[in-house]
Amino acid sequence: MWFKRTLVAISLSIAAHAAQAQTVYKVGSTPTGTPFTFLEAKTNTIQGVMVDVIEEIAKDGGFKIEIQPMQFSALIASLTSGKIDIISAAMYGSPERAKIVDFSQDVYAYGEGLVVSDKDTTDYTGVEDLKGKKLGAQVGTRYIDYMKSSGAPSEVSAYESLPDILRDVTNGRLDGGVGDYPILAYNIAQGRFPGLRLVQSYKPAVVGPINIAVTKGNAELLEKINAGLANMKKDGRFDAIKKKWGL
Question: Bigger pLDDT: 174 or 19?
Fold first, then answer.
């Protein structure tokens, strides 16, 4: 009996030490990318699709996460400098970024959307229809580079967040704003920016997947993330998250 009790005590001690030693990864997410990541005012925490996704991946991978809120433009620099270990936000795994960080399998795919004043009833179909317009786009996104290189808009202003763009379209400082289609659609559907319209006729030119990022060469962590993501998509957890956030 004494021997059995000793074994149980040893087992519990080992389990407790293992739990204490569980790795904690710092995850960079943005406070302004609803429904993918956003600051929830009531709890003062970052919530959204990509938070739910990385939390489920962490459960499968046997590690813990600590969400670090930051502006989109600071995410990659924070990862490469070691301030964070993972990026889980609405970020394209573009070839340019893949030279600097390593990306997971695709999480979700979409392109840019266009928002204008609801007084503007033009059925814009592409960037060529925006000739002479003043547009806003978010720093660090592929949309801003595309809009500038197209030569169609007369001016493309850089903004740190989509809400700032939407506010300036509302007050007339901008003729339109471009950004992640699901994020724009969510904000408009929630009635947060009355007086704006998401242009349904607009066809996105910059379409791609969003991915989770880790430091270049961190194969072990990337393998855990990919395995967890595959499990989620197989067992229905990912579909449940998409449904929860209206995707």
Answer: 174
